Known about the structure:
Oligomer: single chain
Shape: globular
CATH superfamily of the largest domain: Glycosidases
Pfam families: F5_F8_type_C, Glyco_hydro_20b, NAGidase, NagJ_C
Radius of gyration: 35 Å
Family: Belongs to the glycosyl hydrolase 84 family.
InterPro entries: FA58C, Galactose-bd-like_sf, GH, Glycosyl_Hydrolase_84, Hex-like_dom2, HEX_bac_N, NagJ-like_helical, O-GlcNAcase_cat
Helix content: 10-25%
Enzyme class: hydrolase
Strand order of the largest sheet: 10-11-12-13-14-15-16-17
Low-confidence stretches: 1-27
Organism: Kribbella shirazensis
Amino acid sequence: MRLLRSAVCVLALVVPFVSVPLEAGAVPPTAAKVFPEPQQLVQRDDGFPIPLVVGLVRTARTDADAERVVRQALTDAGVQTVRTSDGRDPRTPMTIWLGRDASILSALKVPDSTGLAAEGYVLAAGRDRDDRGHVVLDGVDSDGTYYAAQSLAQLIQSRPGQDWIPGVAIRDWPTMRYRGSIEGFYGTPWSHADRLDHLGYLGDHWMNTYEYAPKDDPYHRERWRDPYPADKLAQLAELVNRARQNKVDFTFALSPGLSICYTSDADFQALIAKFQALYDVGGRAFNVPLDDIDYNTWHCDADRAKYGTGGGAAGRAQSDLLTRVQREWVETKPDVAPLQMVPTEYYNVSETPYKKALREQLDADVVVHWTGIGVVPRTITAAQAAQAKAVFGHDILIWDNYPVNDYAAGRLLLAPYSGREPAISDNVAGVISNPMNQAAVSKIALYSFAELGWNPAKYDVETSWQRALAERAGGNAATTAALRVFADLNTYDGTLHPDSAPVFAAAVEQFWQLWRSGQRAQAIAVLRPQVGAIAAAPATIRAGVVDPAFTAEAESWLKATELWGQAMQRALDLLAALDAGDGAAAWTARQQVSGLVTQAKAIRDSRQPHSGTYPRIGEGVVDELIAETGRVHDRWLGVQPGRTATTNLGTYQDNVPARMIDGDLNTFYWSNGAPRTGSEIRVDLGAPATIGAIAVLMGKASSPNDYIHSGALEYSLDGTRWTELTRATTAEVRATAPAGTTARYVRYRSLSSSDFWLVVREFSVETIGGRKTTLTAGGAPAPAPGSSYQRAVDGNLETAYVPATAPKTGDALTATLSAPRELAGLTILQQSSSVGSAHVEVQVGGVWQRVGAVSSAYAEVPVDDLAVEAVRLAWTSGTPAVAEIVPLWSDTPLAELVVAEDRADVVRGEASTFTVDIAAQRGEDVSGTLGVAAPAGWTVDPASTSVAVKRGFTQSVSVKLTPPAGAALADVDLPVTFTTGATTFEAVLRVAVRPRTGDTNVALRRPVVASSIEPGTSFTADLAVDGNAGTRWASGYDNASWLQVDLGTSTRLGKLVLRWETAYGSAYEIQVSDDANTWTTATEVSNGDGGTDTLWLDATARYVRMQGVQRATQYGYSLYELEAYPAV
């Protein structure tokens, strides 16, 4: 086992290997592969078959655990006899040397392991002059020999007849000292069997660290002073022994911060006694986590008297305790590794009194855990790691909170392990994973942790992830493919991976593009196989994954995936039925979709915190595909749209977005993570309306800080173009839109990142005027418990009026209009499982008249434009369950014309494409002519075209617009019309004419200066103009920071492109100058949202400056690239 007392030098000697030439006529060997990828691997041409009898030579450096691995590998390769000797050559056709043998290494012309870092090894495989095969496993230490044995097991190649060992020379060592995991999550802890299996997995993948720190073990945290009961201690002893067998350091963590008195000798002795108990059963590594506590709270008066108050006081108290543990206990035991600690401030690099105290007073040998810039940071860079080492003043061990899912209830996190720069290894002692509540499923991520920790220079995110999936699949291609599908649906975590189901999301986006362009059958044909793959993936995974614990842990999510996949299949059936005009088939499919979704949302996993909600599968993509399908169906039927609430944040348990618009201040939406810049909550009014007072009420009594701490309240007509109404920094935001403001969407958008989650008690938007007819239902029989009359007219097809008893003669369900209105027809929807028969009657001028009858789940009844006051279903037989009575109003416009862009940019002499949407709104097909009028000299294609739109659908038409080369640089309004019969619908396409620019970036590699760079980094100004999208400038933490480029000569500029890192400017100016003294603002941005900003201007200058006004994050401004293009 390792004595991890100081940083291990990983500068191993780079010794050239000798490649033995291939004999004439020999078959070229298959490439040797080992993972984690070795530091050096040289293919040789002297591989050999594995015979039935193999020699095994023990040496003074032989390790028993390595021998166990070798023997198992030989058995798996079909070896029948292993002749074992102690140092003597058994003269067998193939011999394995468990330890260094200088003569054999010399014969193979391979240098030994001298000079390699701890845990390093040399593996040499090849033939000697007598054509005998040899494998030498030469480890620097027992761990190295063990890893050499693991490499040998991977090298063996299965072949018909006899397996094969390729000729190879490997010289290998780990880059990082600590590699492995920390069981540090909340919720249901792992079982003892889980931990035993996990330790085996770590050893098999060359990970050397397991930290026992389950938050739900009372003897680890709340009852830290109490000795472990004998049975629990025996389990820990078994874990320690299993860890030793797999070359894993079992690290016992004790978390006393909730109650410790730092000045108490009794508490110090209690801590030491707990450590000693673990030492006595074999534990040799220890950690004192002081995370997730309030360091402003003392637990005894003596602490307050000695240390005072504040973070610095806490840092001094913790340093005194841990330094005493290190010096009085750890250092008295030569076989114990340096003490580890988790600081209370574990998630940033800001200089604070607390960190200063640790840096100056904590014993230098103590290793400090750190999670990065944030609790679950999207990225951890080499520069940040260097800052962490400097600010804490100790060796840094990254506690990486991935794939931990205790904060993401209902989610498995199966995406690639990304966002960690390989060069972090220059400044950290290691990286360990905080895994999920699901131990076996966590192995997908842990595989990549192993590869990053061992050889970060060769770590590739995507290929490592693919290998991890293939390993879970036992190498089976079909199972691996199914796991890729499943993992894509379980990507989103809101931190490392902000996009849900990215692969499937792209397919869905393509689907809707095809659908809206009129290629509906093709759209369905393209998406259906991908939806089928989702529905089929769980069965393939259950049959093919080699680890039964994986499928057991993932079963709730596998079952949910099946159901959501089947629901999407039925959703495509629904859309196909609508395209064919078959309303009855569409309604049948809609009910099937609803039933499958209900089943999926009823699933509960047994583990906390996932037991409190349903498994989230491709959330925001899968459910939104189904929701949008429902909206398409609603529009086809003519259902009056209601309000909906959405967010791009996740959801904690069942506190869904709908609760922010339910009118009840006692319910709320609650996110499952902190808002980042660009996070939003949104209300869709369902249709354009005149809006008035708006209120966003956030936070709640038990979590008053759960609100967006800096946000912008905005409204939009189309969901694309937004107008800011106000900005706020308070938990309750209230504003009134200017008189006459029309909008369909209102959102509150975060302008900065927060450490707190988000609670929204209510998001109310007042609508003023407009003609909206409401229906009020009543009658007989009375509704059953849990049902209501109003459910038959609530605009929601998922609810239904269900009578408590079967209707009697004379019973009727009546829907009264808020005002008489001309009615073209009615659609009556009943649940297929419970259909009643009825006469359909309408009241006109106080008189009831029969207009039709219903006796099936779906019925359309024409009303012939009568001015109706009420509608009723007079029951004749059956037991109905009325999902909806849908009126089709005669005065509903035939069509709606929408232009998707507003003040879009067009470039002189260049074609730009825009989208015009025509929607058929009145329950019938619409045909007409679309026309776009442009000024003289402009080209429009098509300027006029025939468009046919089916009932309830929206047809998107692409229009290509080209202004002349000499067009004025101005805003231009282009009239857009759609004429059907005698009716013309009008809209305006508003464009801004921009200058034509050249392709040469005149800012590239030009002299550049900046007001500052981020402290402790090398993110210098020149990196913003170096043409490398992977480098960046970062400023200090100051709103007024700036970056200035000298173009060398006065240049007429037409366009700037700013490519922001995540620390972007929410407000900034572009200033120009010819002398770098007098500056003019050429353009400005007041509501930046990051990413890539393309800014048009018409200015002549030598110097260009990005002048910051407001940072979007707590950090500075960070630009990957600033590009400048001259007007031509």
